[in-house]
Write a structure and sequence with these properties.
mainly beta, Methylamine Dehydrogenase, Chain H, four-stranded antiparallel beta sheet, 7% helix, disordered N terminus
Length: 376
């Protein structure tokens, strides 16, 4: 009888340990950081383990890639898509092998971001659905569309944008799909507009069909505002757009490929023409935007999920040049890539108020500018 009780106790203890192990594993994230390597000691892309329970991080490995200023991760987390942001022949799109279990990198394959390979593109953003990758090329005023075949990229389309006013120049900054997956929305910071392309589901690496077709403008913003980045609500009804030069947020209703502005409000605390990134909390109740150059920080907004409208709730000052930030999947932490202070600040997020508290557990890395998470 005693032996039976002991066995039962051991089984119970093992179950508790297993449950604790699963909980710990669920809280452990693989974290990838893109950096600027020009005039810095950075290797390129770094992998870290981040515990979204404690807010602590540990650097695991790095991959030597030039100026990987923006990253995306494949659905199976075994490939990293990145840009090399240069305005010469080094401008490229890259695929890097990745082991999500160990956090180590494989080989990198690169291809020029333009048809000529002569550069002057400054690719600053990349998106992929694992069949195609699309880079937004700021200086080139263009999109580059690459077919993906295994670990190789093939440039299929190089789409140029023209100036829409005598004094304007096309500066393409971001390209992301709509929630229904039918369209790709593209911000043109120089022309103050958003383009829409139809995504061709029949296109793939095995045929010559164009991936993007039917270009048209679906949003014209006020002159000089400079639309930069955007995000969609989880229900797909609303787009939230941050304007770099105007320092403003625009809320737009999304309906089957079309955008209708319903609210605009000032996001910057101090006019600086340096607004950068925008993200919703995982529960969709709060929106955050980053602002650089003066009074650097994160603006905080309460979201009315029924109407999509925003109410400003606060402003958290940060270290210098918060170009990019990310929120952990559990919503507990907000991490800010502060390029000019060579660190990633970790802020604890109050889920009820949306406000931020600096944990003082900075991750020290040279010129960090992009943060992505992968669940382990």
């Amino acid at each position: 009888m005693k032996n039976y009780a002991f066995i039962q106790l051991m089984i119970l203890t093992g179950t508790l340990w297993a449950s604790a192990g699963k909980a710990a594993s669920a809280d452990l994230l693989q974290m990838l950081v893109g950096t600027y390597t020009t005039d810095s000691k950075s290797d390129g892309i770094y992998s870290l383990h981040f515990d979204q329970s404690s807010g602590k991080a540990r650097i695991i490995s790095s991959a030597k890639i030039g100026n990987p200023s923006f990253l995306r991760i494949s659905k199976d987390a075994r490939r990293i898509y990145s840009v090399s942001e240069y305005n010469d022949e080094k401008a490229s799109a890259n695929i890097t092998g990745f082991n999500p279990g160990t956090g180590t990198f494989g080989t990198t394959v690169s291809i020029a971001a333009s048809l000529t390979g002569k550069g002057a593109e400054d690719p600053c953003n990349i998106w992929s659905n694992d069949r195609f990758a699309v880079t937004a090329n700021y200086t080139g005023g263009s999109l580059s569309v690459f077919a993906i075949s295994g670990d190789k990229l093939d440039l299929r389309q190089h789409i140029l944008f023209q100036k829409l006013r005598p004094s304007s120049t096309a500066h393409i900054h971001c390209a992301l799909p709509t929630p229904d997956g039918k369209f790709l929305m593209v911000t043109d910071l120089g022309n103050d507009c958003i383009y829409r392309f139809t995504i061709n589901p029949q296109a793939d690496a095995g045929n010559d069909l164009p991936f993007l077709t039917d270009r048209r403008i679906v949003y014209n913003g006020p002159q000089g505002w400079g639309p930069r980045h955007f995000t969609f609500s989880k229900d797909g009804q609303f787009m939230y757009l941050i304007n770099e030069l105007g320092g403003t947020i625009v809320v737009l209703r999304y309906v089957n490929g079309y955008l209708l502005p319903i609210q605009s409000l000032m996001a910057e605390e101090t006019p600086a023409h340096g607004s950068a990134d925008i993200h919703l909390s995982p529960d969709g109740h709060y929106l955050y935007t980053s602002h650089r150059l003066k009074n650097d920080g994160i603006a905080i907004y309460k979201v009315n999920k029924a109407t999509g409208l925003l109410t400003k709730k606060g402003y958290q000052q940060t270290a210098r040049h918060p170009r990019n930030f990310a929120i952990t999947p559990n919503g507990k932490y907000l991490l800010v890539a502060s390029r000019d202070n060579n660190c990633i600040e970790i802020y604890r997020r109050n889920r009820h108020t949306g406000l931020l508290e600096n944990t003082r557990q900075d991750i020290i890395l040279p010129k960090p500018v992009c943060i992505q998470f992968v669940g382990l």
